[in-house]
Specification:
- The protein is 35% helix and 24% strand.
- It is an alpha+beta fold and 114 residues long.
- It has two domains: 1-75, no CATH class; 77-114.
- The strands form two sheets. The chain has a three-stranded antiparallel sheet. Strands 4-5 form a two-stranded antiparallel ribbon.
- A hairpin with a 4-residue loop joins strand 2 (20-27) and strand 3.
Length: 114
Amino acid sequence: MARGQQVDVGATRVSQNGYHYTKVAVKPGTGKPGWRLTHHIVAEQKLGRPLREDERVSFKGKKSDLRPENIIVSEKGQGSQRRRKAQLEARIAELQAELDIINAELAGGRLVNH
């Protein structure tokens, strides 16, 4: 569809970044027609209510898969906390492995002092 072209409510488009958008009669917070992320619409249908401002919507798999079972609703900030926790746990595991090597070298008397 060409930019500026009138489209009907319910029409969909895919942006360059791969996200799907749907034309709605009333965009929340504006009271006017507009475009909404389709996975947000699917999430609201799945929940049976509008999304809250403290909620975010993401995908279990590919963002082109708009089935309700592929869509996750979580509180904002939880995703980044989970990611940071995983990063810290991985770093701890690396440090523990390094410590185990040094302890083994010390126990075997193979560590050379500089």
